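U., I forgot to send this yesterday:
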Amino acid sequence: MEKERKLIVAGNWKMNKTVAEALDLVKGLKLELNNLKDIDVVVCPPFTALSEVSKEVIDGDIRLGCQNMSEHSGGAYTGEISAIMLKEFLVRYVILGHSERRQYQEESDELINTKTKAALAASLKPIVCVGETLEQREADETEAIIGKQVRGCLAGLENSQMEEVILAYEPVWAIGTGKTATAEQAQAVHAFIRSVLVELFDEATAKRVRIQYGGSVKPNNARELLGQPDIDGALVGGAALEVRSFSDIVKNCLDD
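Result:
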C-alpha cells in the first residue's frame, strides 16, 4: 500500500521473553523480515535482552527499541535506565507513555513530555502513546482526552523535533482484550490527532508525523487498519511475541 509516510510496525514484547527466548524470536524474525526495505520494523524487548538482541539485529534491517526510559541522564534513581545506557545497545526507538505505565506507574502527560525531550536530546526516536478508556469513549470524551494527552506530551517541542517523533494511538479498551477499534473508528481518531498537530505545529509538519495504531493488531486486521489514510503503522503487543504472527502483520501491510 502506497503512503507518503513510511510505514512503521513495532513489537512491544512487554514483560515477556528470557534472553534465550528473545534470541529465538529475533532470529526467526530476521529470517522472515530482514530483506524488507519499504517498512520500518522495530522490536522492543525487555531491558534484560537488549544487549543480546542488539548483536543479532546490528547488521540487518530490523531496528531495536525499548519500552521505557528515565527522564534523567544519570544519578541516584534506583531501578531506572537512562538514554545513554540505552544507546550503548544501539537502541533507536523508545516507547513512552504506554497506557500500562500511565495506569500502573501513574505517569502523567507532563512526565511523558519530559521523557520525550530527553529522548530527542539523546537522538532517540520516541514512540509517544495516547489513548482513551472504554468509559471515556462511551462518555463521548475521546477527542477531549486524546487532545489533552497530545498537547501535554508534545508541549514545547519544535517543528524540527516532531519529525523524529512517532505517535501511537492505543485505545486502552482494545489492549490485550481481543477487542479492536474498527478501521473507521481508528482512522477518525488518527485524523483528529493529525488535526491537533496542525494546530500545535503546522500542516507540513503534521503531514510528516507517523501515527501508529495499537490495540489487538493481528495479521487478519492489519491490512485494513493500515490501509486507512492517517494510519501509518502498528504498535503490536501480544501478536509480536511469535515469529509467524508478527511477520504476517508486517507482510500483510506491504501486500498490494
